[in-house]
Amino acid sequence: MITPQLAATLLADETRLSTIPMAPDRFRYRYNRDAKHDFAFFGHQPVRAVKQSNRWKFNEPEVRAAGRAIAALPWDPEDLVDPRPGGTSKQGGSRLQPTGWRAEIHNLVDRAARAAHAGTNCPCDSSWGQGHEMSWGLRCGLTAQSLRETGAQYAIACVLPVASLVWTDRTWLIPRTLAFILDSREATEEALGRRPALCKLCGTTVTDPSRRAATSSGWKILCSACAQTTLLSYNQQFKEKTYGWTRENGPPAEDYTCMLCDPPRQATNWDHCHEHDLIRGPLCGSCNTMEGHGKDFLTLKGATAHLMRCTRCRAHRTLPENHRLAALRRHLHLQRGAEDCDRHLHMCVSLDENSNGGFDCSVMCQDRRIRSTKKRT
Fold first, then answer.
1. Burial of 161: CB neighbours in 10 Å, binned 0-12, 13-18, 19+
2. SS3 of residue 198 by DSSP
3. How much is the pTM?
4. What's the whole-number mean pLDDT along residues 206-224?
């Protein structure tokens, strides 16, 4: 197995004679806790990622095969196709909403046009929202050359499409080979995402993609039954231990079940209080991310008790800083929100600091709106 750095070097070597605009140095596996597969893409070629010694690595023959597959494609920069969804049906661009790589390029065009609009004091600001957002054209001082320069290094699956865009009188066109690569990559990624996930121990199909845990030895999937019977339950073994001590001397968090998930799910992280550096317990990737962001973490059953497992927070009778406004939102939502509302707290309760040292609070659940003021505590 080889590192991403060596994989990038091999891909550059395999494609050295190809003139297709590629960026082999961008090749890597991007970990995402919601990922539905464990492949990295070089163009439209998937390469399986495997975690070894806590690092993602790749199989050398697969890497070389991906590079050779790209190098074998024909390349004619003058063989162009319209990238817009719906084709050339309307002047200035199709009214259909772009998706996938088309949306990425469209958004880049839009950002460049907005920057040009701001830099040239273009007088069209009154009509900006009336069709500009769907146009693929040059507007507001944006030139073809400036867009290509701005997005020259913009990579999608190691492909550099923007530098090869060609402007006509109506829209942008893209070389057919790049459109083929990007379309094929999206189709392959969708197919990989539909593959059934199987429990590593019993082989049962697992329908919940969040049960895929990125452990130190790679992706691991356990069904609820296997997680409950094979993993440990945390019983405050490391109470008052620091995060650094646990990382150095304790077992990996993946040996335990998540303290908040029901049914049980494998943990991936040792959650700790960032103010006092004390261990609170093992959490899965999803719960750990929610805790870090604050926001809706307190809506999870047992979340407040979990935060209070930091003995210093409990002694001071206070929540960590990143959860205090969330607690206020939670309280207001319980007191004044709609009982059947299941939206995120920050979508229902807004808090604006006022000049009196408190907050102007607005609670809005569906059609129910209540305004009140609470002082800061």
1. buried
2. strand
3. 0.61
4. 70
